[in-house]
């Protein structure tokens, strides 16, 4: 039941009219009427006087007492599997008391320790533990964490509790400890930068969260494309006859990733520009070697168009943006990238000029003229 329904229920049980209840707690009869119809709610300062007038606990007023009395730890255990890490703290104190009592009797129960840690960090983040000092709260968090990391075998649970513990450290001002514990999260669950972004977002430090999010994204993008490239190289090394064709399947995969996943907005930072266009330059050479000249021409045009777009960016950088990569390449790095990109284009042109097929030679000339290349 809602708090309004509870007020009405207990008022009638006491035999009070709405006016009599209003007089007991010093509010207007209209206020009581609004509470009971759920069109208003008691102010926090009125909760204790209201519960006292009705001769019930504040837990009962909020419909919590029955839940605690009849369900206890087992109910909390079931509920916690469906709750987020940082929840509404309406019942946190009551929950924590039950959980602490259970954990005291079962100090090797990692599930109970996990719930205790979540609950405690909830209260720390909400600044509801002002009666305890920082060192005491840290020791309390670490007591539960030690149990979890010693006895828990589920990887998801372990990783999440690293994050919860780091969130607690961060809320207590122990930033170095928070970063240290985030560094222990297995990379399969995300790098430290990502989880630092999660904490910054939870703290509503949105600029910091976005910066860390972008950095984490760039790191993952770089290594994902490296893995694809390596897989192609391995296949080519293993199969002298067909390995190059299989490698090109991987390189096409990497190109799709760069075009669709890694790009966001209309500009890629210099590191990703380098990755994409060194890939295209190599693809032109390999497709010529395989005799797949249509594909060689398509990839060459991508390279030439990319060089043109990058030159335009250097002239008008204010007109470009990136959604997830950081827009912070230095002028020196941009100049180096321009030189590299120019060298890739020259290399691709030289390979195209080796094509002897007269039909393709004409198409190559048209393509080079289009981009004013000799």
SSE diagram, text form:
Layout lengths: L2 H12 L3 H8 L3 H8 L7 H11 L3 H4 L3 H16 L11 H14 L4 H16 L8 H18 L3 H17 L3 H8 L9 H11 L3 H33 L4 H20 L7 H21 L2 H23 L15 H22 L5 H13 L4
Structural summary, described in words:
- This protein has 374 residues and is an all-alpha fold.
- It is built from 18 helices and no strands.
- The chain has helices spanning 3-14, 18-25, 29-36, 44-54, 58-61, 65-80, 92-105, 110-125, 134-151, 155-171, 175-182, 192-202, 206-238, 243-262, 270-290, 293-315, 331-352, 358-370.
- The radius of gyration is 32 Å and the shape is elongated.
- It starts with a helix and ends with a helix.
- Residues 65-71 and 81-87 have low confidence and may be disordered.
Task: Describe the structure concisely.
This protein is an all-alpha fold and 374 residues long.
Ranges where pLDDT stays below 50 over 5 or more residues in a row are: 65-71, 81-87
Question: Total strand count, please?
Answer: 0
What is the count of DSSP helices, taking H or I runs of 4+ residues?
18
Averaged pLDDT: 85
Report the biggest beta sheet as strand number plus sense, adding barrel if it closes: none
Helix content: over 70%
Class from helix and strand fractions: mainly alpha
C-alpha-based Rg, rounded: 32 Å
Shape: elongated
